[in-house]
């Protein structure tokens, strides 16, 4: 792509999709590791939540990858070995990541995708933004009430957008309208 003075500029949305794909792929691996530690620490509900969120991040990564391929590129992620601490500290780390994605990363990526008129990228970024906001909320609640988080719990994860909830009182996904029957149950 060239700008008005004929200088070649990068497709910023493609770079942002790759960054998001890398982030989601790493979050998936990190949350699975945090889930094992939460179970070991006796916080079984936190283990369930980490597994559900891990699945959501995997769905986001797959959605981002689809748009990357549509733009003619190959999705690339460098998976880092997660640093695992106590469940309390792992929740703090997770909240920090989700809040960054919710408040800074995805809003910025969305703005640029809109400027570049990339509707597919906007859709996948929007789906992730909504789910990360819910993850941040659920993790914050878990940290605040950690001693009450000892029961294994079923969470529902939308197979299309990754929306994550423990509620069962809806017919369609509040984000993408996928019917509830197509949510995955994860505990
Ligand atoms: Fe998340
Ligand atoms: Fe959804």
3D structure, described in words:
This protein is mainly alpha-helical. 59% of the residues lie in helices and 5% in strands. It has a three-stranded antiparallel beta sheet. Strand 1 and strand 2 (164-165) form a beta hairpin. Helix 1 packs antiparallel against helix 2. One fe (ii) ion (FE2) is lined by residues 158, 160-161, 163, 173, 175-176, 178.
Break the fold down into its secondary structure elements and pairings:
Layout: H1 12-40, H2 44-70, H3 87-115, H4 119-144, E1 155-158, E2 164-165, E3 183-186
Antiparallel strand pairs: 1-2, 1-3
Helix pairs in contact: 1-2, 1-3, 2-4, 3-4
This protein binds fe (ii) ion (2 copies).
One fe (ii) ion binds next to helix 2 and helix 4.
Write a compact overview of the structure shown.
It contains 4 helices and 3 strands; from the N terminus they run ααααβββ.
């Amino acid at each position: 792509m060239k700008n008005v003075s004929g200088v070649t500029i990068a497709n910023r949305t493609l770079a942002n999709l790759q960054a998001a794909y890398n982030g989601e792929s790493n979050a998936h691996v990190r949350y699975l590791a945090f889930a094992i530690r939460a179970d070991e620490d006796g916080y079984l509900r936190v283990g369930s939540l980490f597994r559900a969120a891990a699945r959501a991040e995997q769905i986001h990564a797959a959605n981002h990858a689809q748009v990357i391929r549509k733009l003619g590129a190959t999705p690339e992620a460098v998976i880092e070995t997660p640093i695992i601490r106590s469940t309390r500290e792992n929740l703090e780390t997770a909240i920090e990541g989700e809040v960054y994605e919710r408040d800074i990363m995805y809003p910025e990526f969305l703005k640029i995708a809109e400027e570049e008129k990339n509707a597919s990228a906007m859709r996948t970024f929007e789906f992730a933004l909504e789910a990360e906001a819910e993850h941040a909320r659920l993790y914050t609640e878990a940290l605040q009430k950690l001693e009450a988080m000892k029961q294994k719990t079923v969470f529902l994860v939308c197979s299309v957008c990754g929306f994550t909830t423990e509620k069962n009182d809806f017919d369609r996904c509040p984000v993408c309208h996928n019917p509830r029957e197509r949510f995955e149950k994860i505990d």
